[in-house]
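Structural prep section.
Before we set up the soaks we want a predicted structure of the protein with zinc ion in place, mainly to decide which crystallisation condition to try first. Input record follows.
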Amino acid sequence: MADPATEDDIALVTKQLGRFPRGMVAVGARCVCGRPLAVITRPQLPDGTPFPTTCYLTSPEAVKAASHVEADGSMQHYTDLVQHDEAIHERYERAHQLYLVFRHELAVRLGDSEEHIAGTSAGGMPVRVKCLHALLAQTLVMGEGANPIGDIVMERIAADFDPKVCRCTTTLDEPAGK
Ligand SMILES: [Zn+2]
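Run finished without errors. Recording the tokens verbatim:
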């Protein structure tokens, strides 16, 4: 694993999500400040639950920005793009395959079963756009070019979230309940 999760990473992600990140095995992408933005979750949670969303967005700033785009009615537009724009359609299909290969390598390494999530990636891939958080997480983890819709979303929310511009608000020492 390129960037295994440390105790501090897990503590910070717990604050970002407001819950313990079950099955988190690594940090997939970090802000310039070093805080996790997206994490890698194993294909089977410790209790055996199948978990297809391998690249999981944790940055509250990114989650909020992606939610705004989802709420403004863009989802149908993005689905039209992946279904009718030939170039984007092909890149979206490749993003789906890349996701499956990435997870399979992880599953083999960790000894996790993919029996219940075989062929399932995330975010609605490969034919629809259902969750921008998952697609943005793939772009953050695998880099620009990995997912065409993730790339579009990242560019669109740049004023509110950019991995190269720290706008993080989550800290480990803020008082509980704040
Ligand atoms: Zn930051």
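Observations: The chain has one domain: 7-156.
Flagged for discussion at group meeting.
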